[in-house]
Amino acid sequence: MLMYRDGDANAFDLLYARHKGALFRYCLRHCRQRSVAEETFQDVWMRVIGARERYEARAKFTTWLYRIAHNRVIDGYRSDNSGRIQSLDGDEPEVEPAASPLDEPRRRASSQQQAAQLRALLAALPAEQRDVFLLHEETGLSLEAIAEISGVGRETAKSRLRYALSKLRAALKDEP
After folding, report:
1. Which domains, and CATH codes, for the chain?
2. Which of 121, 122, 123, 129 is nearest to 157 (CA)?
3. How many CB atoms lie within 10 A of CB 136?
């Protein structure tokens, strides 16, 4: 980002390529509609571009980037108030080919059911727990960075992550 700030346009391409996947998934899992996620994603990058000349490296770039994304998502929650997650139907990852052609439909159905179940469980989490969980799982950020992005203390972020994981594990354990 410092190179981009200093005028190297190719540095932006590198930043975008490095962070676009995880950032888009983060936005998508917080938004009700794919179009809203795309708009949020683009808005985050427009804010990065707009802040280029004022950027100061006070934290890791990812912390700064996800703080922007977090703020945009929170703005979306405020305007929507539903706190629901976008359905990701059709965005299922490719399933490895099965050993037998007869096993493939069952394997895909099972994988799709598990993905749908996880999406529903994530949607049921309180927004603060879901946010910390997604920041942790999608980006691999440290608890310190997640706390900074969320505007809470490290212990609060740790507690929210622990509660989210506990709820998800319990719900998955209860499922047949």
Report:
1. 2-85+103-174 (1.20.140)
2. 129
3. 20
For 121, the token pair is 């469980």
For residues 83 and 77, is the Cβ–Cβ distance under 8 A? yes
- C-alpha–C-alpha distance, residues 134 and 77, integer Å: 16
Crossing angle of the two packed helices 127-134 and 61-80, in degrees rounded to 10: 150
Residue found under tokens 């683009």: 42
Give tens-digit pLDDT for 101-129: 555 566 556 667 777 777 788 888 898 99
Closest C-alpha to 45, from 73, 20, 21: 20
DSSP 8-state secondary structure symbol assigned to residue 32: S
For residues 104 and 97, is the Cβ–Cβ distance under 8 A? yes
Q: At a CB cut-off of 8 Å and minimum separation 6, what does 165 contact?
A: 133
Structure tokens at 11: 């540095």
pTM of the model: 0.63
8 A C-beta contact, residue 131 and residue 139: no
